[in-house]
Amino acid sequence: MTTAPAVTMTTETGSSSFLQLLWLASPALPVGGFSYSEGLEAAVSCGRVATEQEAAQWLTDQLHLSLARADLPVLAHAMAAWRASDTPTLHSLNDWLLQTRETHELRLQTVQMGRSLVVWLHNHRGIDPAHLQCCDALTPAYPVAFALAVSATHASERDGLLAYAFGWAENMVQAAIKAVPLGQSAGQRILAALTHDIPAAVEQALGLPREDWQAFSPMLALLSAQHETQYSRLFRS
Questions:
Q1: Considering the domain boundaries, does residue 24 fall inside one?
Q2: For the chain, what is the domain count?
């Protein structure tokens, strides 16, 4: 029986780092992102999101109120911590993320996607084995695992955050297309609006002091909790 050769996670500058970021941002990355709606399906079910405009506004608000104040700043600090082999900081960042997931579903999502990404990283050369061992011990939230993947390239923190946010946006737009439902053209218009807002969200995250990090999104938490017992659903969250 033959086995497929491992793919190298290169650390070259320029084009290689850019291609690695495209790879990590792709919805085809086998981490299960396509199976989550992050409360959007519940928002559709209760009538809060029923149109293209409402879906676009919902996701734009989530980008600025949730990602830019929690996942993205953690990701930036985790990238620096992986590159410095700063294990205490990584544990602190990971603990903070897990503690601020406000529902059972949201916590399971970040743990499952983090675990799946680490499994993927084990099949790629270029990641420090000691870092992989540390990541295994963390039970990493997805942003911390993503930070490890990006830290193996020469990508800047800003570019790492842009890749993460765009990957999130693509997955969420696909969720909106299925759940609302919407057509592909509507989905592309929503993605264009999110892409326009992502750079500002990244700048916000990069400049946010740690004491201002927070994941308090009451309506998102309520809808996520309701989704756990929703009778009919397409998504795991």
A1: no
A2: 1
Whole-model pTM: value is 0.91
Kind of pairing, strands 7-8 and 124-125? Answer: parallel
Asked whether residue 212 is assigned to any structural domain, the reply reads yes
- Residue position matching structure tokens 């939230």: 141
Which residue range forms the structural domain that includes residue 164?
37-227
**What are the tens digits of pLDDT across the range 110-141?**
999 999 999 999 987 778 889 999 988 888 99
Q: For residues 204 and 68, is the Cβ–Cβ distance under 8 A?
A: yes
Evaluate whether residue 94 is within a structural domain: yes
CATH, residue 68: 1.10.4190.10
